[in-house]
Amino acid sequence: MPAAVLILAAVAVACVPAASALAAARWPRRSPAAAILLWQAIGLGWGLAAIGALAGLGADQRPGVVRGAYALAYRLIAGRGVAAAGARSLPAAIRLLSLATGAVLLLLLSGALLAASAAVLRARRRQRALLTLLAHGDPKVPGALVVDHPAAAAYCVPGLRSAIVISAGTLDLLDQAELAAVLAHERAHLRERHDLVLLPFTALLQAFSWSVTARQAHAAVALLVEMLADDQALRHRPVAARELATALIRVGAAGGGRAPLGSLAVSDHGADGQVAARVSRLLRPAPRLPWPAIAMVCAVAVLVVTVPAAFLLFPS
Amino acid sequence: MDILWESRDPLTVRQVSSGLTERDLAHTTVMTVLDRLAKKGFARRERDGRAWRYRAAESREGYVTELMLNALEQTGDRQAALARFARSVSDTEAAALRRALGALDTGTRE
Questions:
Q1: pLDDT at B84 over 80
Q2: Measured between CB atoms, does A198 come within 8 Å of chain B?
Q3: Beta-carbon separation of A182 and B40 below 8 A
Q4: Which of A84, A130, A306, B16 is most enclosed, with most CB atoms within 10 A?
């Protein structure tokens, strides 16, 4: 078996334990942005390597996996059958099966991304329409929309016409400084389009809902995005870590406790630990990673993507 | 829309117009707005002779509930549409968080 396929397969397989290790690691809390970059690289690198390995197993990868797979697909469509890639090549059935699996994986991943994007856009359009009818402004939270409901909720609707929504319950629950902290946090989400960071991981989770690693990856990135917004909130506004932490505790603890909507009484174990992790990070901040460590993380991220991409594109 | 929510009976465009006393809107403006609400599914309309009568498709509370359910939904990890400030936690963790808050508050607050 040729080296390119072996290396691609090794990268794809290694990405899974690497993702689990990254999900369990403590250092990402100290530099969420670098960790998010590494998560994105692992996700992209895994996809490239897995699809590339499958396609490369089927095709003649001497001209590069992409061109080899393209040539093979072209021969098949033209009805010329599978050309022998060399004396030591695998049986045609296995090569076709492997190529087909690679194509299915590619379609599954891109389809999941499209489906997730469409669902997100639909849900946001509905949110905006409802907010236009129901929400009103309030001088306590300038720039945000208030919905009259006793439950504690604070969220943002990202997009080109973005909105920050605060429930009346949250207005009662938090004091002025805490509300300012919440607004700064949500503005950071909207400004840096954190929703776009999370979207591919949501799609991955929907495509592989059975996968523990996909769940770990999604939860880890979701938490890192929140931590990033917490950091940004402290940086851009006269917001104190303490107010942000107490706001988090009050909103997080209120949601389950006095939920007036039936289904809200059910606790969300996925969120357990996340609020506590953010609170302890705000109250006892760990120093940021030193710059050589960040540079190393970035270098690893670049390698994880460029190595599979190189084997896909260039002759070996 | 508030006028439709407050009325028990379906209203004609003219009745909605006369309800909007604080704002002097043209009849056609109100007609356009009601037409758009109907197209978006927020209002239902029915023929009454030569005029349309409009009523709200669902109560205001129904829409608020939908909005909040979406905002707080517990299957939130499958949805990337909204970004929540803090997701609600289980009762045990809520109790632990409240204890931490109590410890914080005994310093300067309340």
A1: no
A2: yes
A3: no
A4: B16
- Give the distance from residue A207's alpha carbon to the nearest chain B alpha carbon, in angstroms: 11
Say yes or no for a CB contact (<8 Å) between A272 and B90. yes
CB contact under 8 A, B82 and A279: no
For chain A, the average pLDDT equals 83
Domains and CATH numbers, chain B: 2-56 (1.10.10.10), 60-108 (no CATH)
**Which residue of B lies nearest to A198 if distances are taken between CA atoms?**
B80
pLDDT at A87: 44
pLDDT tens digits, A54-74: 888 877 666 667 777 777 777
Give the number of other CB atoms < 10 A from CB of residue B46. Answer: 9
Count CA atoms closer than 13 A to A72's CA, side-chain side.
27
Instruction: Tell me the C-alpha distance between A249 and A283, whole Å.
Output: 12
**Model confidence band, residue B106 (pLDDT cutoffs 50, 70, 90):** low
Instruction: Report the chain B residue with the minimal C-alpha distance to residue A124.
Output: B81
As for the ipTM of the complex, it is 0.72
Is residue B9 predicted with pLDDT exceeding 90? Answer: no
Rounded to 5 degrees, what angle do the CA atoms A249, A39, A8 make? 160
Two structure tokens written together for A42? 């692992």
Sort out which chain B residues have CB atoms less than 8 A from A256's CB and list them: 88-91, 94
